[in-house]
Q: What sequence folds into this?
């Protein structure tokens, strides 16, 4: 039976319940199971509720897609707030200028941030070292993908051939997260830590490296373990990501 919806508050609650149900089905059963009937049943309503809240199945999938990028942005900013330095065991082979800035970095106390914000226009979430920001973004991206593999696939792959977000929605969603990386590469360029005539292009190169390494790890994690392979544990996955990003940054110095 359809749920009675007569107020904006009830409509909002129904929309959230449907979105939660869809995300649960995606997580537990995969994208092909995102049918109107399954989602409606999981939310204890009728398919009419989906049409009322989202207009169509495509509208529901677009809401899931947008929610995924909201979660990704949240994961990246959380990682920026939590991380300071990457694992030290992967820094030994890097150029002195790069490893020095990474090893010497430490977040200043909150009071000093408040007193000197205007003097440090490149600071972001307490990080004044651009390479540390870039690594923090990489770690947050990886953590999101490994925690939400089905959602990650819906956002960046085509598990549903009939679902294709509009260019406008894709642009807005990607820009929201990609902008954090552009800020970090721009700061690195201004600080002379990388050479780049186009920091946004450099950010794209960094993102493709992060995305490629994380996607390969994710694929390996969903298959039978391959002993002795580079990605035979979560710890090795993080080391490979660290080495890959630092190798790219070293090439830009």
A:
């Amino acid at each position: 039976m359809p749920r009675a919806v007569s107020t904006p508050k009830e409509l909002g609650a129904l929309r959230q319940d449907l979105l939660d149900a869809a995300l649960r089905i995606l997580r537990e059963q995969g994208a092909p199971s995102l049918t109107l009937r399954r989602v409606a049943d999981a939310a204890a309503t009728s398919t009419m509720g989906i049409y009322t809240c989202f207009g169509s199945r495509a509208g529901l999938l677009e809401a899931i897609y947008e929610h995924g990028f909201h979660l990704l942005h949240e994961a990246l900013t959380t990682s920026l707030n939590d991380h300071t330095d990457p694992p030290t065991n992967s820094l030994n082979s890097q150029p002195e200028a790069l490893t020095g800035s990474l090893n010497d970095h430490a977040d200043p106390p909150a009071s000093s941030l408040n007193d000197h914000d205007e003097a440090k226009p490149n600071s972001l979430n307490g990080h004044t070292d651009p390479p540390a920001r870039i690594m923090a973004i990489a770690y947050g991206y990886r953590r999101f993908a490994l925690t939400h593999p089905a959602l990650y696939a819906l956002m960046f792959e085509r598990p549903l051939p009939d679902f294709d977000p509009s260019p406008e929605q894709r642009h807005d969603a990607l820009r929201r997260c990609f902008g954090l990386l552009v800020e970090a590469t721009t700061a690195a360029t201004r600080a002379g830590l990388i050479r780049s005539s186009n920091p946004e292009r450099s950010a794209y190169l960094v993102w493709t490296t992060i995305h490629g390494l994380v996607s390969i790890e994710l694929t390996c994690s969903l298959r039978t373990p391959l002993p002795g392979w580079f990605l035979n544990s979560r710890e090795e996955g993080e080391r490979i990501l660290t080495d890959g990003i630092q190798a790219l940054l070293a090439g830009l110095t």
Notes: The first helix runs from residue 8 to 29.
